[in-house]
């Protein structure tokens, strides 16, 4: 992996007129890729050990109702949030008046 000499961005291999160049992802600075490296030097290889993988399940999808709530519960929650919001606005207005 190479970094841009101008801005420090990552130099990404790309083609320009059938020539492979390294181009900065931030500023666009370009330079010819050294022929001794070739494309093989810039392949991403990552091996993940299957024993290290995490297995997950979804309990929500298993339940018949999931997380569904009734319309009444949703409306009640909206009212509570609205009341809290109004209280916070009032407190902010009162504290703002004292500063002047």
Strand order, largest beta sheet? 1-2-3-4
Largest sheet: 4 strands, antiparallel
Helix content, binned percent: 25-40%
* Count of strand segments: 4
Structural class: alpha+beta
Number of domains: 2
Task: Explain what the structure shows.
The protein has 100 residues and is α+β, with helices and mostly antiparallel strands. It has 2 domains: 2-43; 69-99. The protein has 2 helices and 4 strands, in the order ββββαα. It has a 4-stranded antiparallel β-sheet, with no helix packed on it. It starts with a strand and ends with a helix. The model has no long low-confidence stretch (mean pLDDT 78).
Give a concise summary.
It is built from two helices and four strands, in the order ββββαα. By secondary structure, it is an alpha+beta fold.
Q: What attributes characterize this protein structure?
A:
100 residues, alpha+beta, 4-stranded antiparallel sheet
Secondary structure: elements and pairs:
Blueprint: E1 2-3, E2 10-16, E3 19-24, E4 30-32, H1 59-62, H2 71-99
Antiparallel strand pairs: 1-2, 2-3, 3-4
